[in-house]
Fold:
Amino acid sequence: MSVIGNIAGIPLFTTVQEALAWAVSKGLSGYHAHNLQGQMGYMGGANHQQATGMPLNTNAPPQTTTTTTTTTSSRFSGSSGSSGSSGSSGGGGGGY
Structure:
């Protein structure tokens, strides 16, 4: 295999056949072309994002999404009808 160079750690080959063989070995299909320092080369994978996991013209790692799940629970337990206060059930309390 004749490798011209690497882009984002992925080899760039001189022939389509080499790029396709590399793609198959990585569970990918197809190829796409790059011009590296004035020389046409072929990279395995139907497109750059499939081959590298990142869009063309960037060295940034692929974006990741973080999902946060919040669970709430009731603070009240016991008999229904309570408004959350503790003490006697007679209410009132007066004495003013």
Notes: The first helix runs from residue 16 to 25.
